[in-house]
């Protein structure tokens, strides 16, 4: 159990999710010359580093495009759930941008058809549950390793991005706590046992918030957990925040560090204009989702965690990068 904010910051920075997200720096460096805003061939409406690429559709809206790869050990050990998650996380990325999904495609490698069939069965279940068709892909059943990547296409009329959080706004985290851990993995599963209509309506709150103009900035909570995902959003927006760890919604009986490094099936961070906080919290509460204001966005480009009557800086963006966006 963490005894102070500093101890919590140190353990989070060494966690697997944080380490993997910092790898994004190298990928962004490698493609920088092709995606700089001054490059006339660049079609992106926002910079790289968000949940999805957003491309203007020529009609006042945006095409959204994203991809997720799943780690080999997860695909090998839990092929059905890995297939299910591959669709679920892509769908969540689209909604996090204020959009709605259109279709997915996949690339699957396996050493036999049995494992591949389980993966595809999981994908099919999620496809039906979230109402997003699988329209094609690539398969190789002669590979020595089990691997999976899934890409998604969607659209949005009005964007939520990681680049538009403003100082003075409230930082809100929202989760669906009606679930359980998918042991031994840090995945909080509130999806597979839920009714499809409920899942979709819960997700549709994000584009509704975007359309209402109550927020311009949101992000899907990923493998970096809720704190790591907050760092990604804040770095992209060139701001900081003070985050009260005790204000983060959490399932009863779950240890703090475990929850902070968990990957929830439904979890989002939003930066919300203060005059609209009540409306946003009310929307989530009406759907029995657990949402709370966990802090405030600051002009100072550092992120401080408040925990156990102490406070510590987990990162200062003026001197360190997280994903390098």
> According to CATH, what is the topology of the largest domain?
Phosphoribosyl-aminoimidazole Synthetase, Chain A, domain 2
Radius of gyration over all CA atoms, rounded: 19 Å
Corresponding CATH superfamily of the largest domain = PurM-like C-terminal domain
- Identify low-pLDDT runs: none
SS-derived structural category: alpha+beta
H-E order? HHHEEHHEHEEEEEHHEHEHEEHEEE
The portion of residues forming beta strands comes to 25-35%
What is the name of the CATH class of the largest domain? Alpha Beta
CATH architecture of the largest domain: Alpha-Beta Complex
End-to-end separation in angstroms reads 32 Å
Helicity range of the residues?
Answer: 25-40%
- Distinct helical segment count: 11
**What is the domain total for the residues?**
2
Indicate the mean pLDDT: 92
Categorize the overall geometry: globular
Main pleated sheet: 7 strands, mixed
Number of strands: 15
- How are the strands of the largest sheet arranged? 9-12-6-13-10-14-15
């Amino acid at each position: 159990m963490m005894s102070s904010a500093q101890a919590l910051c140190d353990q989070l920075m060494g966690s697997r999710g944080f380490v993997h997200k910092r790898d994004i720096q190298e990928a962004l460096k490698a493609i920088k010359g092709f995606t700089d805003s001054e490059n006339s061939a660049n079609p992106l409406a926002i910079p790289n580093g968000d949940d999805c690429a957003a491309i203007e559709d020529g009609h006042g809206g945006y095409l959204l495009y994203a991809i997720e790869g799943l780690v080999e050990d997860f695909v090998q050990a839990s092929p059905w759930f890995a297939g299910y998650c591959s669709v679920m996380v892509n769908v969540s990325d689209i909604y996090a941008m204020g959009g709605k999904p259109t279709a997915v495609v996949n690339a699957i490698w396996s050493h036999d058809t049995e494992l591949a069939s389980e993966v595809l069965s999981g994908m099919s279940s999620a496809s039906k549950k979230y109402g997003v068709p699988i329209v094609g892909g690539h398969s190789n059943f002669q590979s020595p390793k089990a691997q999976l990547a899934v890409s998604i296409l969607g659209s949005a009329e009005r964007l939520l991005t990681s680049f538009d959080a403003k100082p003075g706004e409230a930082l809100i985290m929202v989760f669906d706590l009606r679930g359980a851990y998918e042991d031994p993995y840090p995945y909080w599963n509130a999806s597979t046992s839920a009714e499809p209509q409920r899942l979709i309506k819960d997700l549709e709150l994000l584009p509704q918030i975007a359309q209402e103009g109550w927020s311009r900035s949101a992000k899907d909570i990923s493998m970096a957990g809720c704190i790591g995902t907050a760092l990604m959003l804040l770095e992209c927006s060139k701001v900081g925040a003070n985050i009260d760890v005790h204000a983060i919604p959490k399932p009863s009986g779950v240890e703090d560090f475990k929850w902070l490094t968990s990957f929830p099936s439904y979890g989002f961070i939003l930066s919300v204009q203060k005059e609209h906080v009540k409306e946003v919290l009310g929307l989530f509460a009406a759907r029995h989702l657990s949402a709370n204001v966990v802090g405030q966005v600051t002009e100072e480009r550092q992120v401080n965690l408040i925990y156990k009557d102490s406070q510590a800086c987990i990162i200062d963006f003026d001197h360190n990068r997280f994903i390098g966006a």
